[in-house]
Amino acid sequence: MVQSNYIDSFVHIAKGIYKLQIEVPPSERELISTFEQSYYGQYFNLTESNDLIGIIVQFLNCKCVKAACSRLMEFYVPDNTN
Which GO terms describe its biological process (predicted)? Predict the structure, then answer.
């Protein structure tokens, strides 16, 4: 099961993409927008972990997400390691 606090980190990454004005390719816009507009994973069904894992893999493979992750110190992402 994927914990919702991990999803919350992805929301902050998506918001950081827009804050840092990182270019989002057309093929990634819908997914990034979905994460950016979600709040505490409310747009994701956390009980269906297989589908959620697929969404997370897609998100992490986005070029703009990789660009944002290389600049994590420039925007807020909560520490969910506790």
Answer: signal transduction
User: How is residue 46 written in tokens?
Assistant: 């956390």
Answer left, alpha or beta for residue 41, where phi above 0 means left and psi between -120 and 50 means alpha: left
State the Cα–Cα distance between residues 17 and 11, nearest whole angstrom: 10
The residue extents of the domains of the chain are 4-74
The pTM of this model reads 0.76
Q: Which long-range contacts (CB under 8 A, 24 or more apart) does 72-78 make?
A: 72/16, 74/16, 74/20, 75/12, 75/15, 75/16, 75/19, 75/20, 76/12, 76/16, 77/9, 77/12, 77/13, 77/16, 78/5, 78/8, 78/9, 78/12
Q: What is the pLDDT of residue 45?
A: 54
Q: State both tokens at 24.
A: 């989002």
Residue showing tokens 């807020």: 76
